[in-house]
Amino acid sequence: MTDLYIISGFLGAGKTTLIQTMASSVFQGQKIVVIENDFGEAGIDASFLTSCEITVTSMNSGCICCSMSGDFYKAIGQIVKEYQPDVILVEPSGVGKLSDIVKACLKQKELVEIKRCITVVDIRRFDKYKENYGEFFVDQIRYGDLILISHLEGNSGEIEETLDKIRECNQEARIEADFWDSIPAEVFRTGERVEAVKELYEESLKTPKISHLLSAVSSPFRFAREVFSSVTLECNDSLTKEELKLKLEHVIQYADGMILRGKGIVSCNEGKFLFHYIPGKFQLESSQAEGNKICFIGTGIKKEQIKSLFEGKL
């Protein structure tokens, strides 16, 4: 039986960074495979994790529990057979419901055991995301066994208030509001299961047929695809870092709709750079990861407009 951990969290919460931390400190010396599910076609996080010497299986064409759910079911079986890992970490798209991810993983409960459902919550955007994307955001909190607060720097005064709001959604989970490398490894590995996840496990015992589970899981994600959209761009121009920065900022400033997440790995004539964006925070830093794509995720965004904004003259 292979241990499986689900790393959930809304767009830009810090899931990929958490996986890096867990790989180096919690599961050091163990064979780890990550099933990574970018929303869109870029595979940015997969490229970044691969550069950290973690085996990654990337599923980029949709949410795990939508049209990909059958493939996801097969992928777990293939991974267990081919790699025989000690640990599987599942990083679903930030716009996915944790409850649906749990249901998909339970379809292979003969091969894997869900040890922890971990949810990362961005302390800076709790109210905004709960108000605007409650169905997805609250579900990720409700089904989390362990909830980790991210982006604590400079926000210590908001911790108690945020903890109270999380407790309104989930009274059972263990909540850690500390820097992740300070949390004991055992907290990540094991702990009490919240009642909501127990109920899903009991349901899986009553409905063992895959076809039934596929039907139950897929429909909520059709709605997710109606709410959120992604635009992926390939960067083939030889840009300086400053030119790249200006183009990205131009897209963020003038694009229709709301860009909730931007990420990418871009090769410039000054080297390779990792791009991260969430509202209020823009990062462009050196990287060794391979790739040359940028992905924007949001609501009401338009592919042709974003492409035109990025490729046009400033």
What features would you highlight for this structure?
hydrolase, nucleotide-binding, five-stranded antiparallel β-sheet, 314 residues, Hypothetical Protein Yjia, Chain: A,domain 2, single chain, GTP-binding protein, 2 domains, Rossmann fold, chaperone, CobW-like_C
Q: Would you summarize the structure shown here?
A:
With 314 residues, the protein is α/β, with parallel strands linked by helices. It is built from twelve helices and twelve strands.
Spans of at least 5 consecutive residues whose pLDDT stays below 50 are 60-69, 210-222
**Overall 3D geometry?**
globular
Strand-residue proportion? 25-35%
Order of helices and strands: EHEHEHEHEHHEHEHHHEHEEEEH
**Main sheet makeup:** 7 strands, parallel
Question: In CATH terms, what is the architecture of the largest domain?
Answer: 3-Layer(aba) Sandwich
**Fourth-level CATH superfamily of the largest domain:** P-loop containing nucleotide triphosphate hydrolases
How many separate domains make up the residues? 2
Arrangement of strands in the largest sheet: 3-2-4-1-5-6-7
